[in-house]
TrEMBL record:
Domain Glutaminase A N-terminal: 105-335
GO terms of biological process kind: carbohydrate metabolic process
Entry keyword set: Signal
Name of the protein in question: Probable glutaminase GtaA
Domain Glutaminase A central: 342-688
Signal peptide positions on this chain: 1-20
Pfam families membership: DUF5127 (PF17168), GtaA_6_Hairpin (PF16335)
Species, as recorded: Phialocephala subalpina
Length: 694
């Protein structure tokens, strides 16, 4: 189709008109994280043009990562006129969003209310990799600051609510609720699914647990539960709520019950802030097939707090510490990402941090902690080894000790004989939160992939944490997995790699490399644990294999030469992201000439938004691109980074950062599924992981 230049100009003008109101810094992401702390606490504002509204907090409802509305509403009255600032509330005028910005922990909106007052609305989802007590709490903050813009005093009332849509994905299920105030003056709505089916999900939302929506009790605070139209209508009419409870507990979608707060800010001149917190408390979090068989594991926060309301009070009163800690982390990532590779790199990693951690959850108790991870969106598996692997760089960068808490459940299950195969398992359970293992051995078979991943990740953790005891503890099974690699890595059978959507293939060059690096990792593990004979043997096998691999896997006569997708297929290529393991572990196994060859090659096959994953498809993977960039020469590295940063602003995809997209159009791939909100974006930290000397 051809457009006339007038039509194009008109479109451009329209686009400018509809988007000119707000600035977006450092970018307008495909979806804006609002409350992202765990697999079940994961709500965003869809922004991309495939159904999103361009990055505005109003005019559209906040959405759980999987696509269901989790209504969260905001209104403000200024001098008796009502405006909505969050959500899609009928019959209200909206404020005008003038700016949006994000950091690694915050999404910040600035609103102009008719030239009279300005609002700064900050959504903070804390990330505290060094502080497990705080990280274990599934809570986030919303801080709303209001200030006069024109110097005059304005009469202001502030309204917010959440609906019961947060408490289950089954909209026909009955919700229940209550209102209360803690002994230290935090008023809260507590909302839950009445029948509490533990460990059960509907459309990926948890069906159990208790939600808290809270703010400080003040003289001017009023509350109300009831049908959305009634509660919101009460505020519109009166600027306050009825202090009343609706006790007609009913299905989530029947006269949608909402839980509102209204606060009279009085006559506002200077800045006045109101803090809210939203959180999910679940006593039991995971079912785990560990050393003693299947047991329920508690949420880790239960070890630190004796009740839900104790946890709530702590969180609410902790805002100043949470805020300072968040700023310290934001600044660390900001300065180190910028130093490593510039602003475009920061644009990528700061959007990725909450999403990566948002797929994880700390469970267990203070004597035995675990970090569980959900393979969000692709299949819901628990503790998927080849999803932990791409996620891993963010932990290596921020807190390597957490890596052990992720690997422990996998070792515990397999070392206690609950998995029959001699190679490493793919995942610990078909659907989160049931880490109930695969006693039949029928998990998705990716033996070469996972054996290599486990060896590389275990050594990386031990190196960064100086924990050789961990290597000794798991030597037996690591050595067992190495036997698989010695037998299978050099000439890979017809099998899938982690990129299973791309199809299976024999002799995959990149997969073989992972296996060989895995053997190289085992040589180091043997060395560090005093197993000299094994160290020498595996060193020589890895060397021998890598020499052969360079003959088998490189199209030497191509211009320019490059590694192939599979042996002998000289006109194919792919991202050789598994080379990253050689650098991360400092193995020095693969000659620098291979790194240099790939750096020279990628620019020759680059598309608008990146280098395709391989020659079978037009799509690419953002995580593997950043792994590849991390070990490339500076110019090629910047090419990858600039393209991905450009993608963030340009993509029409409207969900949380998809790691799988079409490198020509920036849109969803046409021949693979839609991924979103996956933890693999932790892999965007690949460059920063290499800078952590720990
Ligand atoms: C707002 O409405 C109240 C009640 O109708 C009225 O007393 C007050 O003067 C109004 N304030 C403004 C600023 O219009
Ligand atoms: C509302 O319910 C809470 C308990 O859920 C109770 O403490 C409070 O007194 C009730 N308020 C009114 C006005 O009925
Ligand atoms: C987890 O297992 C329980 C049974 O123990 C089951 O009721 C629940 O539906 C399972 N959850 C998911 C998400 O499959
Ligand atoms: C802590 O967790 C471990 C492992 O799940 C369990 O064996 C132990 O009993 C727990 N300790 C307490 C105090 O609950
Ligand atoms: C895999 O590569 C090996 C070594 O080049 C070769 O002998 C074998 O035939 C290849 N397998 C397939 C199916 O192409
Ligand atoms: C480990 O490697 C170092 C350096 O190559 C070597 O000196 C040492 O003897 C090795 N130790 C063992 C136990 O193999
Ligand atoms: C080296 O390891 C391979 C694979 O485990 C084994 O078959 C071989 O016997 C070992 N060689 C020596 C000298 O230990
Ligand atoms: C691929 O290239 C290598 C040299 O790099 C050559 O030996 C081999 O024959 C080529 N294979 C095919 C199928 O053309
Ligand atoms: C890949 O891109 C080419 C060129 O734009 C196009 O012809 C082809 O249909 C695309 N293939 C797929 C699978 O998207």
């Amino acid at each position: 189709m051809k457009f006339s230049s007038q039509v194009l100009a008109a479109c451009a003008a329209l686009l400018e008109f509809t988007t000119a109101a707000s600035t977006f810094s450092p970018a307008r992401p495909p979806a804006i994280p609002l409350a992202v702390k765990s697999p079940y606490f994961n709500t965003l504002q869809y922004a991309g043009s495939d159904g999103g509204n361009g990055g505005y907090l109003y005019g559209q409802w906040p959405t759980f990562w999987a696509g269901a509305i989790t209504a969260w509403a905001g209104m403000i009255k200024v001098d008796n006129a009502t405006y909505s600032w969050m959500g899609d509330i009928p019959n209200t005028q909206t404020v005008t969003q003038t700016a949006f910005s994000y950091t690694s922990t915050r999404s910040i909106f600035t609103m102009n209310v008719d030239g009279k007052v300005e609002m700064d609305i900050t959504f903070l989802s804390p990330l505290t990799p060094d502080d497990q007590k705080r990280q274990s709490l599934v809570f986030s903050y919303m801080d709303v600051a209001v200030e006069s813009m024109d110097g005059a005093a304005h009469d202001v009332q502030l309204y917010t609510d959440i609906s019961a849509e947060w408490v289950s994905g089954n909209r026909g299920s009955t919700a229940q609720w209550e209102y209360g105030t803690t002994s230290d003056g935090i008023s809260y709505h507590r909302v839950w699914r009445q029948d509490q089916p533990e460990f059960s999900e509907t459309n990926d939302q948890a069906d159990w647990g208790y939600w808290y929506w809270a703010t400080e009790r003040t003289e001017s605070l009023s509350f109300q539960s009831g049908a959305d139209v009634d509660v919101r209508g009460a505020f519109m009419a009166n600027g306050k709520l009825a202090d009343s409870n609706d006790t007609n507990y009913r299905p989530i979608n029947q006269n949608f019950p909402v839980f509102g707060f209204s606060i009279g800010l009085g006559s506002v001149t200077g800045s006045v802030s109101t803090l809210y917190t939203l959180g999910l408390t679940q006593e039991n979090a995971i079912q785990f097939d560990g050393a003693t068989g299947i047991v329920p594991l508690t949420s880790l926060w239960t070890s630190y707090f004796s009740s839900e309301t104790d946890a709530l009070s702590f969180v609410y009163n902790d805002y100043s510490t949470a805020s300072t800690t968040a700023t310290t982390l934001d600044n660390k990532i900001s300065s180190e990402a910028t130093a490593a590779a510039g602003q475009n790199y920061l644009t990528i990693v700061s959007l990725s941090a909450r999403q990566a951690f948002g797929a994880t959850q700390l469970v267990g108790n203070t004597t035995k902690e675990y970090l569980f991870l959900k393979e969000i969106s692709s299949d819901g598996n628990v503790q998927t080894v080849d999803v932990i692997f791409p996620f891993y760089p963010i932990l290596i960068y921020l807190q390597p000790s957490l890596a052990k808490l992720l690997l422990d459940p996998l070792f515990e299950n397999q070392e206690s004989g609950q998995y029959p195969n001699m190679y490493s398992m793919h995942d610990l359970g078909a659907h989160y939160p049931n880490a109930t293992g695969h006693p039949d051995g029928l998990d998705e078979p990716q033996p070469l992939e996972e054996c290599g991943n486990m060896l590389i990740m275990t050594l990386a953790y031990a190196q960064k944490s100086n924990d050789n005891a961990y290597l000794s503890q798991h030597y037996k099974i690591l050595n067992q997995w190495t036997q698989y690699l010695v037998a299978e890595a050099l000439i890979p059978a017809n099998q899938i790699s982690t990129d299973d959507f791309a199809g299976s293939l024999t002799n995959q060059t990149n997969l073989a490399l992972k296996g060989i690096i895995g053997i190289g990792a085992m040589a180091q593990i043997a060395n560090l644990t005093g197993n000299t004979a094994d160290a020498e043997n595996y060193t020589s096998i890895a060397q021998n294999y890598i020499d052969q691999w360079q003959t088998l896997g490189i199209a030497h006569d191509a211009t320019p030469p490059h590694t192939t997708l599979a042996y002998g297929m000289n006109d194919t290529h792919g991202l050789l992201y598994n080379l990253y393991g050689d650098k991360l572990l400092n193995l020095g196994l693969v000659p620098q000439s291979v790194y240099d060859m790939q750096s020279a090659f990628y620019p020759t096959v680059n598309d608008e938004y990146g280098v395709p994953l391989d020659t079978r498809h037009n799509y690419t993977k953002s995580d593997w691109e950043m792994w590849t960039a991390a070990i490339a020469g500076v110019e090629t590295r910047n090419m990858f980074i600039d393209d991905l940063a450009k993608w963030i602003s340009a993509t029409p995809t409207n969900q949380a950062f998809t790691d799988l997209y079409d490198a020509q159009t920036a849109d969803w791939p046409i021949d693979a599924g839609h991924f979103s909100a996956r933890p693999v974006v932790g892999g965007h930290f690949a460059l920063l992981a290499l800078t952590n000397p720990a």
